[in-house]
Amino acid sequence: MTWATIPLAKAADLESGFGFPREHQGEFNQSVPFFRVSDMNLAGNEVYMANHSNTVSRATLAALHARTFPAGTVIFPKIGAAIGTEKKRILTKPSTYDNNVMGAVPKDGVAPKFLYYWFLRINLTEYANASHVPSIRKSVMEEIPFPLPAPSEQRRIVEILDQADALRGRAREADVKAARILPALFLKMFGDPTANPMGWPTADFFGVFDDVTAGHTKVQARDFQPSGAVPIVDQGQNYVAGYTDDKSIAHKDPLPVIVFGDHTRTFKYVDFPFALGADGVRVLSAKDGIDPLFAYWHCRLRELPSAGYSRHFKYLKEKRFMRPAANRQSDFARAASETTKLTAAIGTATEKVEKLFTLLLQRAFSGQLTAKWRETHMQELLAEMQEQALLLNLPTSAKGAK
């Protein structure tokens, strides 16, 4: 038995949202949640849209010529850079959303969570147009092929993927907890670096760091390779942005160093040979008497004002930095080194869990995950598929049963 493959439009209604004028925003106690893309980032909204920033009354909804969409609708960004975040979420109650969002309302015979997991497999960016401001058209989404197992097999797939997703959640939670350890240790040993409540001696920027950026060749982003002899470190969020095979441009100064993103305000502790990514990067070396790992965490916890995408090095140079006793710094550095090994191991485990989940998604929607289960429930599935075809107005030959 094989599954039918139908256009997404046969499995779900694709619905764009509505304009949400500013004068109607900011209400929290009305009856209808009005979601925006930013609400997908709220804590607790990682899968289900349980929390909201705006609500409207039924009267306001009518005045905006808007309507609600049912619980189980799968929503995602449809305009701009937000498409690239690949966020997909599920409505938990009748709600509406703005015109930067599109939703897929599952039809009878399609389980909402099954539809959600299917959406996790696709890359929205592949379906966006290539204009200056990318957007996703309803007509394009409607034509995406959608696999259609019988409802009981959908439920079985969801049950397995829910278990795997719960494991992902626990792994991510462990990551978050591990990431809190070193900031907490630093604050316990030295206090807030901005307020310096323990009264440590301080020095200006040039009493703590040497700027060793100059004199090194920087690799342009277009020349980054996916693999190579030398890792490239830039100001982006990823620790390693790419690779180069040109060993002659590796950073020449003694390691470790701290790489500062002049535009992004990111700090990276680098203790391995590397090449420097172009644009907006400063390389800092801790002076004698300053432990590099202590200096790195001092910088990470030091508040810097945001100037958007302007340069921030000037703000860093204006700061004063604590200079605790060398042995105190060394104690912290030893603890930080051991803790970093632990968090790296946790991070590796999390990556493995994510890869396993991706593999399960692939197997789930290719039919491999439930192949043996399907064999033992053949008669039940055939009957369900007949009923499902009627619900979705499909010709019975489209079921694909053999």
UniProtKB/TrEMBL annotation:
Molecular function terms from GO: DNA binding
Highest taxon above the source species: Bacteria
Residue ranges constituting the Type I restriction modification DNA specificity domain according to the UniProt record: 12-166
Keyword Thylakoid part of the UniProt annotation: no
Annotated keywords: DNA-binding, Restriction system
GO BP field: DNA restriction-modification system
CDD domains referenced in this protein's UniProt entry, alphabetically: RMtype1_S_Eco4255II_TRD2-CR2_like
Coiled coil: none
The keyword DNA-binding belongs to this UniProt entry's keyword annotation: yes
Pfam family, one: Methylase_S
Similarity comment: family membership: Belongs to the type-I restriction system S methylase family.
Protein name: Type I restriction modification DNA specificity domain-containing protein
Organism for this UniProt entry: Rhodanobacter lindaniclasticus
Lineage summary: Bacteria, Pseudomonadati, Pseudomonadota, Gammaproteobacteria, Lysobacterales
